[in-house]
Design a protein that fits this description.
single chain, mainly alpha, 7 helices
């Protein structure tokens, strides 16, 4: 199995390069690996979380417009906890129930509508915060990791030439002797790019998806307030 043996050899060679690197370069490499691992975790977690938010929001919106019974809509919203739109509905429904049970506020149409609107806005802010949580780390990794890797590479090359200049074979320095030291340094750049590229792509993808969900929440807020005005606060 030449393919497997070559892969194992490449992996061992990378480990050798890491072990021979200067301790500062090693610290940079470890930092980049940690950023990569955290980034991968966030990508998978947010992919599942935002995917569920999309699917459940679509199901709730469908139930909301098809049903004429607000109690049935409320039950559907409770079953779809991952949907930011359903959580907005629950917040508005809860506030409406409080206002209707409070006789002192029943005739204050504008005040009641303002209370419901604030409840919807608070729920929207909470949902948006949850959707965007951890995503900024991907942006930070995407922008910082290449420069951190470059920093490690520059230090690695500098330390490599210092070691070569201090060795007895400095006069005979060639590609064969310089190559391993340069490869150790360039490994930091490779790790930086490995951490940055998926993070940037995932960040742009998630922000587009979150933008769509925010638009859906804003549209639902207006539709919900219009329904409240027509049927409950007349």
């Amino acid at each position: 199995m030449p393919g497997i043996s070559s892969t194992l050899a490449a992996g061992l060679d990378i480990m050798d390069r890491f072990e021979q690197a200067h301790w500062i370069v090693k610290a940079v490499m470890i930092l980049l690996v940690v950023m990569f691992v955290i980034g991968v975790y966030i990508i998978f977690y947010k992919r599942l979380y935002i995917g569920r938010a999309y699917a459940e929001s679509a199901r709730f919106t469908d139930a909301f417009w098809k049903s004429r019974d607000i109690e049935q809509i409320y039950k559907a919203a409770q079953a779809l906890r991952n949907s930011p739109v359903s959580q907005m509905f629950i917040a508005g429904y809860t506030e409406l129930a409080k206002l209707q049970s409070d006789a002192a506020h029943k005739d204050d149409r504008e005040g009641n509508l303002g209370n419901i609107e604030r409840a919807l806005r608070r729920s929207q802010l909470t949902a948006t915060t949850k959707l965007e949580s951890m995503v900024p780390f991907l942006a930070t990794t995407g922008s910082a990791a290449p420069f951190i890797g470059l920093f490690g590479t520059v230090l690695g090359i500098m330390f490599a030439f210092i070691d070569i200049s201090q060795s007895k074979e400095a006069s005979a320095a060639s590609l064969k002797t310089v190559g391993p030291h340069i490869s150790e340094a360039l490994l930091a750049t490779a790790l930086g790019l490995a951490a940055a590229i998926p993070s940037v792509m995932a960040y742009n993808y998630f922000m587009r998806r979150i933008k769509v969900l925010r638009a859906e929440m804003e549209t639902f807020e207006q539709d919900y307030l219009n329904i409240i005005k027509r049927h409950f606060l007349r």
